[in-house]
């Protein structure tokens, strides 16, 4: 009787486990026979593996079971996976819900027509945001590898992975600076009263007057240069109303930042901020140093507790006088704004940034899932939570903005702000009128820290995963050391943003290195690499293998048509409407803009550069090159098997 060996998978025994994830049953049968009688031995075993299971049916003279190599099991265990489905969902929620939900979305909603802004926002969400969110999570889970390795699915586009890694580096350097500012304000608020209430501090100027006290100033109108000018009388003399400053702004610029006159004057390192930046980097390191099993536990606090703080702040906010006037400005629609292209551009950039698209982070987080996890359902849940949080945060912020406008007797349009202006000017000014100002200030800045922290360390996790999966033999055993090196280098580069001229550097990185241009560029190529080059039908087959059914055809339409079209359209709109970045009234020198453009191109050029290089070094004629590096022949199942074989070989070599 001839001996034969075959490998098959028995998927009939799939069932739901406690975490809602599917595991697979595998049957191993061994038949033995001789001249006198036929013996049948059937061995059934259930193998539950963190990654790709191995199942074997063996027909042989001697009953044996083929098992995964120890090297392969060890390698997979070292890579890790989520302990539960909730760990994964909370981590993705923590990534997607960041500072942009709190300090940018409410302002964009007000600025672009209130409730009318929700129309372009949700249209973009349905046509591009959710489809790309789903694609990135599914891609990582499908191939069980980080943001560089996934482009084995379309090798010529691997430059997208490198571009995303570079952009993540810039993001890690500049985003965490905001958290350092928040920690500084948190510590400064831990006293009997907030230090920005009065003008009697060493950093205040003679023209400092609290905005809430200005109604008691003696002021009158005078004709100066044939125009009416408001003059106010201070102890130090008479000055124009435009020359008045307030203690909140002076604390921010003269105490926290100690800002210089321009980027040409970089000044000294702000050692207090250097200390808070170091503290945040240490916290970030210990949030990710043990891998996703540890990270999955940290996010139970960092992702959920901000909702408690937001709810507390909302309850306090809506009880303040003028709160409902602020909320009305936030939600009342102004449909005439929808004719302005800027409204639609703001909607697209807000969706892409707030959902963490294009950076390879979602791919990395998805790669730690079990292959049969229902990633489709997870994507829809997280997207719903993200957008709901943005709208909820708007009520929190504008209830306080309305109160400020009421107390200062100013229009809400003059009080509303976004970005650092909201976090470090508007809200600190608002707490001055609240009983227990220090408590509300501490709560607000602690909330900012938590909201930003999980976005920061999840982005770090995406970068770390991509690099380690690319060079596992070199880095996986030294993962903790590698993460420490990345954190130290990022901290040292970030010191440039907390010098006296650091705000100008921060603004350059924000406007160029991690701008909408870079993000739209990355997402466009990522989308077409899967939908057009690999093939949307084969990608759908891979999704069916994971979740057991085909998602609705709508996502195919979005991946092939609407998402690439939106990326291209908004990218060129941004170019046409480009205006050089400014910081308040300060105009940057030409070399600062040149540096900013360099930081943007440092990621963007990886994509075409890698395409040209790979095309030239790949042997064969045009047709064979296309089959090898543009539109490969393997389906998802074959590609996974090929990648598993490569992983096993690498593990065996590494163990020698």
Automatic annotation (TrEMBL):
Comp. bias (Polar residues): 1-10
Binding site for Na(+): 94, 96, 101, 354, 386, 454-455
Predominant localisation class: membrane
Disulfide bonds: 199-208
Domain of life according to the entry: Eukaryota
Annotated stretches, region: Disordered: 1-21
Membrane topology per record: Multi-pass membrane protein
One Gene Ontology term, aspect cellular component: plasma membrane
Segments traversing the membrane: 88-106, 118-139, 160-187, 273-292, 304-324, 344-368, 380-405, 425-451, 481-506, 512-536, 557-578, 590-615
Name used for this protein in its record: Transporter
